[in-house]
Amino acid sequence: MMKNFLLLLIAIISLHTIQAQEDSRVITTAVPFVLISSDARASGMGDMGVATTADAFSQYWNPSKYIYMDHKMGVALSYTPYLSQLVNDIKILTVNYYNKINDRSAFGISVKYFGLGEIDLYDQGGNYNGTVNPNEFYIDGSYALKLSETFSMAVTMRFINSDLKLGTGNEDASAAQSVAVDLSGYYQSAPIDFTDFQGRIRLGYNIQNLGPKMRYYKDDDGDFLPTNLKLGAGFDFIMDEYNTIGVTFETNKLLVPTPPVRDSNGQIIDGKDDNVSWLTGVFQSFSDAPGGFSEEMKEFQWSLGTEYSYMDAFAVRAGYFHESEIKGNRKYFTIGAGFKYNYLTLDVSYLFSSNKLKTPLDNTMRFSLSFNLDAFGSGATSEE
């Protein structure tokens, strides 16, 4: 009973299983919380950040961007209420720190915590068996290196812990752990002169959460990590020294096998066996959809976002996120704003669905704070 309850809990918190249609082939993974946007700036632009300009939360999106920060070091905090329309004690907290070692290298550290609040346990007879506080978290570190004046790469190492076990009976559940690696790159061109303005091209990629499966039970084969491919491209319209408009497009795909179609006896009748190693699953994910190439293309989510900034002190943002109907059917708009005063930056965002399917973050305000620590260090190292 406890094992079934745990699986139900995982399904509830998963971003990809809420109100799935009967004919859908939604891809589910362990620890889906790692895919939730970590900051309000990115959230205000349709949950994107792999190719946007650098900020203190680049650790999650693309740590290669840290090379292009205007400041030597900083720290950032974010708070996201989760399922806020239903409960008030499920939350996501993120802490980031970055430091530009010199003009060519930088490192970052982050911690992300997902607390599921208090859950009261009862046995089949309705007797109270105590209260638990299941939670998940990861801690990671990145190192970025500038390979040319316009291109940098980074590698990130991550430790993930998922403690969702419930009860103290004879169940064999335990906290699950895994390690993962991210590989990312970022290109930012020098300003390009046009007739009435200057422009700047931005490109980015990040292959996230490459690593072994997570095992919640001793007799389990394990669940795939949410290995994910992010690709993005953007352009900055630098109107003058005060006004900049940035437009960015991003697409994402889970590098996890698509569940095959099975008959009533569990035999595969279409698609490929998804009980494979995590590395095999990465390559198989591009060619295993039962619906062929058209379904593979539907596994790509995409976002479109824009940001207007004035004097690097005030910003307004808007974005749109799209996911195929058979892969989760999340479609929503986001808006946001940012305010900078001295060494402090405050970002806020708001999400609202554009279809009948409500996401766990629907009608939710998200907040982020970033602190420039140059006042306590050796000052900026900006090359721009």
Helices, strands, pairings?
Layout: H1 2-13, H2 40-43, H3 58-61, E1 73-81, E2 91-102, E3 105-115, E4 119-122, E5 128-132, E6 135-146, E7 151-163, E8 176-188, E9 192-193, E10 198-210, E11 228-238, E12 243-254, E13 261-262, E14 268-270, H4 278-284, H5 293-298, E15 300-310, E16 314-322, E17 331-341, E18 344-353, E19 364-372
Antiparallel strand pairs: 1-2, 1-19, 2-3, 3-6, 4-5, 6-7, 7-8, 8-10, 9-10, 10-11, 11-12, 12-15, 13-14, 15-16, 16-17, 17-18, 18-19
Description of the structure:
- The protein is built from 5 helices and 19 strands.
- The protein is mainly beta and 384 residues long.
- The protein is globular.
- It has one domain: Porin, CATH 2.40.160.40.
- It has a 14-stranded antiparallel beta barrel with strand order 1-2-3-6-7-8-10-11-12-15-16-17-18-19. A two-stranded antiparallel sheet has the order 4-5.
- The N and C termini lie far apart (59 Å).
Concise account of the structure shown:
By secondary structure, this protein is mostly beta strands. It is built from five helices and 19 strands.
Largest sheet, in brief, is: 14 strands, antiparallel, barrel
Low-confidence stretches: 1-8, 10-22, 379-384
Number of helices: 5
Distance between the termini: 59 Å
Query: What portion of residues belong to β-strands?
Result: 35-45%
The averaged pLDDT comes out at 87
Helix content: under 10%
Radius of gyration equals 21 Å
Overall outline: globular
Task: Tell me the count of domains.
Answer: 1
Overall CATH architecture: Beta Barrel
Which structural class matches the secondary elements?
mainly beta
Output the CATH homologous superfamily: monomeric porin ompg
Under CATH, the topology is which?
A: Porin
Number of strands: 19
Report the top-level CATH class.
Answer: Mainly Beta
Order of helices and strands: HHHEEEEEEEEEEEEEEHHEEEEE
